[in-house]
Amino acid sequence: MIGRFNWAGVVEFLPQLATGLYYTLLISVVGLLIGFILGAIFGLGRISKNKLVYFVSSFYIEVLRGTPVLVQAIWIFFALPLIIGYNFDSITAGIIVIALNSGAYIAEIVRGAVMSIEKGQMEAGRSLGLDHGKTMRYIIWPQAFKRMIPPLGNQFIISIKDTSLLSVILVPELIFQGRLIAANHFNAVEIYTTVALFYLVITLSLSFILRIVERRLDIQ
Amino acid sequence: MIEVNNLHKKFGNLEVLKGINCQIKPKEVVCVIGPSGSGKSTFLRCLNMLEEITSGDVVVDGNQLNDSKTNINEVRTEVGMVFQQFNLFPHKTVLANIMLAPQKVRNLSTQEAKERALALLKKVGLSDKATMYPSQLSGGQQQRVAIARALAMEPKVMLFDEPTSALDPELVGEVLEVMKKLALEGMTMVVVTHEMGFAREVGDRVLFMDEGIIVEEGNPEQIFTNPQSERTKGFLNKIL
Questions:
Q1: B83–A123 C-beta distance less than 8 A
Q2: What sign has the CA pseudo-torsion A38, A44, A47, A48?
Q3: Band of the pLDDT at A3, cuts 50, 70, 90?
Q4: Which residues contact A167 (CB under 8 A, 6 or more apart)?
Q5: Which helix (H) or strand (E) holds B9?
Q6: Which of B45, B65, B76 to mutate to test the interface with A (most CBs of A within 10 A)?
Q7: Less CB within 10 Å around the terminal CB: N or C of chain B?
Q8: Mutate which of A117, A128, A147 to test chain B, going by most B C-beta atoms within 10 A?
Q9: Does the predicted TM-score (pTM) go above 0.80?
Q10: Do residues A113 and A144 lie in contact, with contact meaning Cβ atoms separated by under 8 Å?
């Protein structure tokens, strides 16, 4: 069965798939970096005693978690420009989608991790005269960050896979390139299998890196 | 040094402190005893505003704590606290635990903070543990590090919240020994404790609390040998 497909012929299309891989990685890395910053801000916002900050953070998280990534991508690329009168190129739009979407989930990861740190740690910091911000920065955050790593890894993998949905807003990423090739050369099995393997290699590498980071931080 | 007038504390509808009045003089060692749930720890935690005051006045070293103009962080630098559960920072070494606040609050240089930390570790008898992490230490050692950490800010008052209650019995002595040394050096101390031996030997004054009020106070000898209130008698009978 497998033998009747032209696997060797895939080599010819590797440069084009590599271009797709480049955009997949670009959007994943930049999007997740911004997503982590958003997650940290809104995650802490959701623990804030300030009602406005809490409300804004909750609103952001609930809206972004409560709508599909695909809908968010289409809305930002096709609808938002009509509202603000400015067109994004598809790559910028893709980065915004991944950043906003992952940010909402990461916010909940951050909130959970920070809240899991024993109350006594905050009290110990405060009783030494450190203000709330310094106690957060030097005492709570480093401990919470360690606890965030496993769920963060999970979210990173989900977001990387979500970038494949961006093909509908014409981001020239992996599956977009794959569909182009398969449509012109009738080699769907070979190309789509190769694309799937590309994703798998990315996510497996990430898992591996995260395991090393976790071990490095596990100094106690 | 500390003056408390008509202090009330409520958690929701539950009134835990029902009008506490007390004065603590410099260099005095005051032990607070009483049954669990009597409000001892809450009282202590009101002295550095870890608990917000519902009503009444608490003045520490001339600073009115329940005044919104008071910078509570500044007041806390003068008030050390030692917790029942130690609350050391598990991600930092013993040395880093002690150095953190002097560096980040008092702006000491690394060198100065380190010298101070090492001197304090020597004082609590743990010079050899400087590079270890809290989880590698016994409970008694952890609590001695916690005392050193609080002392590193050179506070004027030290608050102890049942410092030996979480310890195995054989480790209690080493912590009390450090506290006794501190008392002899003239540190002002407020100690919530179940260690009657310590209260008797080291305390200048004992406060007996029950149901949110100070039922009886006096010098240890008087409280332990000739308690006036029935409640004090009942409590002491149960534990001695």
A1: yes
A2: negative
A3: low
A4: A173, A175, A176, A179
A5: strand B2-11
A6: B76
A7: C
A8: A128
A9: yes
A10: yes
